[in-house]
Amino acid sequence: MKNLKFILFLFISAALLSCGDDNNTPAFPLSNANIAGNYDISNLVVSTDITTTLNGVPLKIGTATTTGDLFKVNVVMNADGTYNVEGSYTINVRLAPVVGNPVETRDIIDVENSGTFTLNTTNNTITFSEGLVRDLTGTLEVQLFNATNFSLFQEVDVTVGSNTESISTNIAFSRK
Questions:
Q1: Rounded to an integer, what distance in angstroms lies between the CA atom of residue 131 and that of residue 174?
Q2: Which segments in the chain show pLDDT lower than 50?
Q3: CATH number of the domain within which 138 lies
């Protein structure tokens, strides 16, 4: 009798654990129609590692961190794949060389950009034809997308003179 109860317990457990949700469609799928709307920028962080090459060996010479705040930027994403960005925000930049003291600056950035965007729902990316905000162009990974927010991420390497800048950008938007 104990064996029968044990086998019955195993059978029920296996049946419950093997049940899955056959619906893999997200509740709010990434699409031009769903991304269309007016947004505020809620967060902007850019981290940069600066390296140079000495005798064939990469050598880190500094880091830069840019943080945006005081966003007064209107971002309009349209269902036809066009966008418009207009307004201003401030950035706090901290440049920290490996040797020496860090330097901090604060700037006001005015932005007035428009262009087209293309969504790739297979790879969860969005590509902008023009700059979205200062120095942010190209293809970005959509990390979060729901009815009220979306966030984007990008990693790029840029050669500046004899240095390489490895840049990671996170930007987030909140629907108005």
A1: 19
A2: 8, 10
A3: 2.40.160
**pTM (global) more than 0.70:** yes
pLDDT of residue 131: 80
Q: Are 132 and 151 in contact (CB under 8 A)?
A: no
Q: How many CB atoms lie within 10 A of CB 62?
A: 19
3-state secondary structure of 4: helix
Q: Is residue 7 part of a domain?
A: no
Domain total in the chain = 1
Give the angle subtended at the CA of 168 by the CAs of 102 and 99, to the nearest 5°.
25
User: In sequence order, what are the residues at sequence separation of 6 or more whose Cβ sits closer than 8 angstroms to the Cβ of residue 63?
Assistant: 47, 48, 49, 50, 95, 96
By residue range, what is the domain housing residue 86? 28-175
Whether 11 is covered by a domain: the verdict is no
Q: What is the dihedral of CA 158, 163, 166, 171, to 10 degrees?
A: -60
Whether residue 111 lies inside any domain: the answer is yes
Instruction: Write down the pLDDT at residue 1.
Output: 54
CA distance 149 to 42: 9
CA distance 131 to 126: 13
Is residue 19 included in any domain, yes or no?
Answer: no
State the pLDDT at residue 140: 95
